[in-house]
Specification:
four-stranded mixed sheet, four-stranded antiparallel sheet, alpha+beta
Length: 224
């Protein structure tokens, strides 16, 4: 979890903006906007975020039980997007439909059984076939972090991201107050800062690569 508390974020933002007057009402919202954007956006200022970049603290799962002849279960309230749905009762991974495929299925209201497919639509996850009874579904998803509220609350992601979140709030706030010259400078500095951190989880992928790499015990002398 982060170490900088909410009151520190707000006071640091005020300082970074040059102690501007009449912004204390807004700094809390500006910090939270930067926090939410940082945890969810796929690109910043035209720079795409690498596909594998993620915050492990935001990956989670929950279970939900189906009801007989009810075609859907609820999307978790804090869900940003769903990775997959697993039928825990039958130890079976459901396949993902799109809404067109789901609506083209005939007999959705009368065909019941063990669900094979899922599709997110609105605030529900629709299943096909419609569940015949009670099945426990495990929903694996990326959650949306709760807003910082109390003065002592901290981010749910690592301390290494406190400074990038603060600096992103600075960049966004400079645009709001129309300080375009400072905005351009701080934006470039932020992009350099994040470029040095964005591959922080690459080291974990090395373990996966080692699994796929042949052991040296199988190599022939000519391979050395």
């Amino acid at each position: 979890m982060g170490v900088k508390i909410f009151t520190e974020f707000k006071s640091d933002l005020t300082f970074e903006l040059g102690q501007r007057e009449n912004i204390s009402t807004y700094t809390g919202g500006w910090v939270n906007t930067a926090y939410m954007d940082f945890c969810s956006m796929k690109s910043f200022f035209g720079v795409p975020v690498p596909r594998d970049f993620r915050f492990p603290e935001l990956d989670t799962s929950t279970t939900s039980n189906t009801s007989g002849s009810v075609a859907y279960i609820a999307v978790p309230a804090d869900c940003l997007y769903i990775y997959t749905v697993h039928d825990t009762t039958n130890d079976s991974k459901l396949r993902n439909y799109n809404i067109r495929q789901y609506t083209e299925e005939t007999g959705r209201g009368t065909t019941t059984g063990q669900p094979d497919y899922w599709v997110r639509y609105g605030s529900n996850i629709y299943l096909f076939p419609t569940p015949a009874g009670t099945y426990q579904m495990t929903i694996w998803y990326r959650k949306r972090p709760a807003l910082l509220s109390s003065g002592s609350s901290v981010t749910v992601i690592g301390t290494e991201w406190d400074e990038p979140i603060l600096k992103l709030a600075v960049v966004q706030s400079l645009l709001r107050v129309k300080d375009y010259d400072a905005y351009k400078i701080y934006k470039e500095e932020w992009k350099e800062m994040i470029a040095g951190k964005i591959g922080i989880y690459d080291e974990e992928r090395k373990d996966k690569e080692d699994i796929l790499r042949p052991s040296v015990s199988y190599l022939q002398p000519k391979d050395f």
